[in-house]
Amino acid sequence: MVNKQHEKNRRDYLANKVDIQSGYASALSLSIEETDTITMTKSNRNNLLLRLLKYVLLDILKNRMVLFYTLFLLATSFGLFSMSGDATKGIASLLNIVLLVSPLLSLIFSTIYFYNSYEFIELLSAQPIQRKTILYSQYWGLCISLIVALVIGLGIPLLIFAPSKAALSLLIVSCGLTMAFVSLALLAALLTRDKARGIGLSLLMWFYFTFIYDAMMLMIMFAYIDYPMETITLTMISLNPIDLARVIVLLQHDVSALMGYTGALLQELFSSGKGVLLASGVMLIWIFVPLKLAIRLFNKRDL
Amino acid sequence: MIKLISTLLLIMLAHFKMQATVIECGENTKFPSIQQALNAALPFDTIEVLSGYYKQGNIFIEKSLSLFAKGEVVIDGEFKCEVITVKSSHVHIKGFHIKNSSNLSSIDIAGIKVLASHHVIIEYNQVEKCSFGIYLSNTKHCIVKHNIISGNVLAETNIGNGIHCWKADSNEIENNEITNQRDGIYFEFVTNTTINKNFSHHNLRYGLHFMFSHSNTYTANKFSKNGAGVAVMYSHHVTMKNNLFDYNWGASSYGLLLKDINDSDISGNIFSYNSAAIYMEGSNRVNMRNNTFSNNGWALRMQASCVDNIIEYNNFIGNTFDVSTNGETQLSNFNANYWDKYEGYDLNRDGEGDIPYRPVSLFSVIVEQLPPSLLLIRSFMVYLLDKAEKIIPSLTPEYLIDNKPIIKMIEAENQPVASININKK
């Protein structure tokens, strides 16, 4: 009985965004004991997170941006593959585009979306829901929608034209990048209240990771040209998610042979499970550390 | 008249004496062992070895004669000795399956070794698991053709070369296939020799390796997937035509490494999928024409120690770097090549681009000075640097420039690597 009522309420507020506030409140009022922050069990919390997530996902779907992103990816990958003919070349040029576009879009779209749903977040915060859950719902909603866009826009053309290990690594790496940059976007959005500054900050992050970091790396390498720099460059590479993603995909690609000693080191590292473990570890750090920081900021924030 | 008759008589006598007999050798014949037959034979006889499996130690040929295999003849050295040693000129060895020579680090042991002889023909043999395959030491006018040589790779130190020539002149090496040796074909102090249509692949070190070997011609050979590609050094007047160098891929692997090669001609070759298609050091007056460089890491790594080379009518397609160099001056001449990265135009439609092309990108200059920076390959920052340098060149070598780049891909005049026909009798 309770469940049916529950379901009906949920459907109501999902169907109509205007009704959402009252609908949500009534939905929650039914399970007020469950949502009590002190007595709440983990499964209840997850349940709540899922309910919020569904809402966020539907909201993102209404916003056509992700759809356009998917179409853009589909168009470019189909175009590149049919133009170059050679599958490996197609993957290589796709890599350039993905490394440039997917961090940028993840950052900008997530920041803007967060600012736009600020009122809803405020409303949710008035409910007996943990703030962590609210932010997680935002984060996973953004991640899932962008990853679905990637899987459709990249995965399908890759499956058709170049079903290989390199293609798989490209897809996985771009998903990892998306997750890392969504979490960085949330951090940027929480660092400042002003929307314009928040977007500026996330743009700056993109600029830093795509250009400034590489230029700095080159500068450091030139400064210490007389010293063996292999391990240091490897460390520096893994500290930038975009560079790390690029190197992981290129290693599947035989380009490592050009890299001489450094390439050999990398190849050795990544041919064993250790390198893969290391790379995914670093990626996970890039995903969860900014997210944890964002949650901390959000918890402390006076909304 | 008497003179004539005596000459005729002499000729007849000579003919009688030279009348070659055919000696059969095999299990149920007079000579169960090949060495016995060889000892009994007179010069210019023919020994036909019947099919069977022969384990008879080292076989020495010290007379000018022909040794033919009739059917499937296997000669096994049982990893104890060298298999056939030729110490006489005018020897003809044909159709054997030779295997399992011993392996010593103090002496070069071979499947077939020819010592200080001339006019020796070795053909249609299969040499398997021998330290060295065919070893020609101090020879002239020898022919090695249609042999298949495959080694037993253990380590670079305890395996020899496929076809090894030391101090030779006017030999011919044709239609051989060499795999799993240290160097596929190795020459030292070899002159006027032709090397045609050989297929050297999967060797531990180099597919072809020569030093101090002048005036040799290499045509229509195929060198694939060798540990370090092909390395040629300290020679002059080398001609390399219509060869294929491919898949020599690795951190220190080259399609073709030229070290101190002078006055040579490299034309009509195809280089594809090599980490560095041609690496040149201290090489002068080398003409490179009509070659195709495709999908290599570097198409041409030309060190500043190279002078007066002419690079023209080549195709450069899909290489990560077209040309790289380590110096600021460049004394070689690039002219009328096709570069797939060329972005110029041809307003008067004469087939030549109106603006010059600079094949050295800024990133390749950086990489040359700072190899670890290759980790930044395909980074967007690198792309920007290259673009900026293209617009206002300042760091790339000023004179390394193709003033008349060709707009359309150049059709190869000769299709390299015609049919390599290895072991068809």
Describe the protein in words.
By secondary structure, chain A is mainly α. In chain A, 84% of the residues lie in helices and 0% in strands. Chain A is built from 14 helices and no strands. By secondary structure, chain B is mainly beta. Chain B has a domain at 20-213: 3 Solenoid (Pectate Lyase C-like). Chain B contains four helices and 36 strands. Chain B has a 24-stranded parallel β-sheet that branches. In chain B, strands 3-5-7-10-13-16-19-22-25-28-31-34 form a twelve-stranded parallel β-sheet. Chain B starts with a helix and ends in a 34-residue tail after the last helix. In chain B, 48% of the residues are buried. At the A-B interface, α6, α10, α11, α12 and α13 of A face α4 of B.
SSE inventory with pairings:
The complex is a heterodimer of chains A (303) and B (425).
Chain A: H1 2-15, H2 20-30, H3 32-35, H4 42-62, H5 65-84, H6 87-116, H7 118-126, H8 131-161, H9 165-191, H10 195-223, H11 230-238, H12 241-251, H13 260-271, H14 273-300
Helix pairs in contact in A: 1-2, 4-8, 5-6, 5-8, 6-8, 6-9, 6-10, 6-12, 8-9, 8-14, 9-10, 9-12, 9-14, 13-14
Chain B: H1 2-18, E1 22-25, H2 34-40, E2 46-54, E3 59-61, E4 66-76, E5 84-86, E6 92-99, E7 110-115, E8 121-123, E9 126-128, E10 132-140, E11 143-145, E12 148-150, E13 163-169, E14 172-174, E15 177-179, E16 185-191, E17 194-196, E18 199-201, E19 208-211, E20 217-219, E21 222-224, E22 229-236, E23 239-241, E24 244-246, E25 254-262, E26 265-267, E27 270-272, E28 276-281, E29 287-289, E30 292-294, E31 298-302, E32 307-312, E33 315-317, E34 321-324, E35 331-335, E36 338-339, H3 362-369, H4 380-391
